[in-house]
Design a protein that fits this description.
This protein has one domain: Multidrug-efflux Transporter Regulator, Chain: A, Domain 2. With 74 residues, the chain is an alpha+beta fold. This is Excisionase family DNA binding protein.
């Protein structure tokens, strides 16, 4: 949902290739992150899919950490 309460439309899941492109890393690095539990994913018919919410939470966490680390940050 957006701040206005209107639901946003977007993918529910991303495949490994999409996650690798978004995070600018190799597919193998994404597979490793999944296998170590760093990145939550589900396996559907032999394919790993990462919930979009996992990526959103990862981004929000990174932004919050960067803000707290910035001089004069929150």
């Amino acid at each position: 949902m957006t701040n206005s309460g209107v639901p946003t439309v977007g993918p529910t899941f991303y495949d490994v290739q999409e996650v690798a492109a978004m995070l600018k890393m190799s597919r193998m690095t994404v597979y490793r992150a999944i296998s170590t539990g760093e990145l939550r994913a589900v396996r559907v018919r032999g394919r790993w899919l990462v919930p979009a919410q996992v990526i959103q939470t990862l981004v929000e966490s990174a932004v919050a950490g960067a803000t707290a680390d910035a001089p004069g940050g929150a």
